[in-house]
Design brief:
Elements (H helix, E strand, L loop, with lengths): L1 H23 L2 H6 L3 E6 L6 H10 L11 E6 L6 H9 L7 E4 L23 E5 L5 E5 L8 H6 L2 E4 L6 H13 L3 E4 L5 H10 L4 E6 H6 L2 H5 L4 E5 L21 H11 L7 E4 L5 H15 L2 H10 L6 E2 H11 L4 H11 L1
Parallel strand pairs: 1-2, 1-3, 6-7
Antiparallel strand pairs: 3-10, 4-10, 4-11, 5-8, 5-9
Amino acid sequence: MANAQQTVVAAVAAAACFGSSVAGADPVAEFYKGRTFTILVGQEPGTGYDIYGRVLARHLGRHIAGNPTIVVQNMPGASGINAGNWLYSIAAKDGTVIGTFTPNVIVEPLLGNAMAKYDPARFLWVGNMEEGASVCALTPAAGVTSFEDLRSKEVIVGATGPTGPLGQAARALNSIMGTKFKIIYGYKGSASVKLAVQKGEVHGVCGLTWSTVKSFWKDELDAGRVKPVLQTSASRQADLAGVAHIDDHVKSQDTRQMLDLIFGTMVLGRVFAAPPGVPADRAQALRAAFMAAMKDKELLADATKTHIDIIASSGEEVEAMVKRFHAVPPAIVERVKQVLQ
């Protein structure tokens, strides 16, 4: 009888311990343990977005509870819109997929792009790796030494398509600021444009992030085969002192608002989003893991080695900036639409 009682007591104790263990388990860690986590890159391999995505992939897993295996998947097309559409509608909404794409993806629905079948406000904005500064970078063959040269000389630049940031930047500058860029469309991404520059097909590129020029175009930059001639984003860069900034040539508040809608999103230079509908605990965990990775000494060393900058902002900060861009007065939005048509 005593043995039977001891057995019952032991069983009850074991059950209590098991119940305590289950109750104390981290559901986020339990979910991610043994899973594969995908970082979707909306541009071709070898571009700045791809470089940032792969640096993040090498370090993010350590900061997500459960330590999932991280893989990178490239999905170029329509200047990032294909990736935005897929992330919004098709990707798993369980917290196992995040994506990065060009910042113009954030405002394409606002500007009436019928290809953009997503609502930017419904994405879970995870964070941003870099406050992007965009530039126009040209070869010496362009013969450009000042902003006024861009208004008097035809300069041939490469771009992906009309909705991409490279094409939009050049078109906006032509329409609003009177430059004379001749735009050659059809390149897959900045890596393809770089090859075109090397072959002498084009003089350079406009609307490319400065971090990409410093990293992926480093050999061309160091050798003087390309040089930045104009800063087009809202943020002035200390290492571009002496390079003309578009703000120096803006003469009205309306023009400023138009340029901010076109170029201002570059502040979100390497933004990452997850599909709508990610469970709240995983959403919070992803945002926290992202910011922890941005302070990770190994990631920062990796970034230095790769020649990229880390100037991070949180998911909450990105979300607030997205709301700001979508609060631009309708009249300004309509004028920008006309410029980019």
